[in-house]
Amino acid sequence: MPNPSTRPRPNRVRRNRRVAGGDAARNELVSRSLESAQQCLVNQDYGTAFAHYLLVLNLAPALKDFARESFRFTLFKWAEELDALSRIQDIFDCYEQALELFPNDEVIVNSMGEHLFRMGFRDEAAGYFHKALKLKPDFADAKENFHRVANWLVERWHFLMLNDHKRNAKYQRAIQKAVQSGFNTVLDIGTGTGILSMFAKKAGASEVCACELSNTMYELACEVLSANAMEGEIKILHMKSLDMEIPKDIPNRVSLVVTETVDAGLFGECIEDTLIHAWKHLLLPTQVPA
After folding, report:
1. CA nearest 213: which of 270, 128, 157, 282?
2. What is the pTM of this model?
């Protein structure tokens, strides 16, 4: 994680430094604000320094690379102070402003995820750690953070189910039989890793749609489909099936619903409500295919 105790060396700017672009008054304002930001860092007035950096970088985006290290340091120190004061919303506001300026800065993205994780927003934190890794795949801090949050969000039974070859083979045969009998438009409810959707598509289904409420599992399913070159063939919605509407979310009712939303006690994941809703609102009327 970023170490806010390590102070960067201020990038000193002389008052007569020319800032590319803009009129003379703006250049003067940028130069003065940059000097003020650096002096505030020396005085450990991180909130004021952060405000000055925001002004400078919004007026003179060409200085982003020049000021990046000092800006990061200021953000992290100011966020520490806000956290100590329990000003949670202000922390998120600061990070949103920072990410508007540096949307592809993996260090800031990862740090945002760390704050979210500490505050209990694990699903959202996973999304930021995942983005940081996409920006820099060898970023050790983001990799460690992503694995840590995954241990919270990805239930262990996923791995047992995925490695239960006999069970999966039976699901695959059942789906293949249904699809090849004419039930070739498919909705996979609670797709998880997307395995049942892929079974349906490989069986020859003309249309396959899946839904997943968990942000972590939704992202994982998208990755799995991409890894299997099926991302363009299966539509995944980040929502629960109880909120799905036709034609808003899917164009037409489907002829087959597949799901694994069952637990060891069968009803722990509210499968009865899910299936009743699907029967009434998402499935075609019962018919025997020609």
Report:
1. 270
2. 0.57
